[in-house]
Amino acid sequence: MTVPMLEHVRRRVRGLAHLVDAPAARKIVYTDIAEDHGDLTEVELKGLPVGTDEERFKQKARAHLQTHREQEAVRKLRENEQVTAEDLAALEEVFLTEGVASAEDLEQKRAADGGLGVFLRRIGGLDREAAQEAFSGFIADHDLSADQIDLVGLMVRYVAANGLIGIRDLYENNLFSSRGVIDDHFTDDEIDALEVVFRTLRARAIPDAGLAA
Prior knowledge:
Distance between the termini: 22 Å
Order of helices and strands: HHHHHHHHHH
Largest sheet: none
Shape: elongated
């Protein structure tokens, strides 16, 4: 059983949740307990984000990606070319110099899933022609119906706007709207082939990831 099939079953079962009997009502217990706050002391909270506010960082980074498309790392991310560690290191230096991000911001993104490259791809999107090219092999290798080609077009537009796509996006973001779920339109083999396209898109934003990402 494939991941998409399991997701399809999950969605169907979720629709039956309203049939489950509600738990018995519980008696509400009220308490009146005096609180002794004691002396107030200042403590340092660990693990909270420091430096630039994340939303502000996103806005500054997005603006930079839009106005500096000629920079090597920015161009590669937009055109779905493989980025290198050197590309991202150079971009980090620019971000620090121009006040786009703090060292703490960059460290957090490097440690996140996919690293800085995936973060920037998501907020910057992908060139429309590059998105179309990413799916061209899938279209060429499969005898698709007009309906399937139209749905691939929806995926292309989603990738152009969001930079990346995954099987989960096909379910959770209502990409197919009223057309149902991906299982209704593509075979298991076709879905597996689409997942290869999705993984490749992501891998191109991760230095040295290749198809292993």
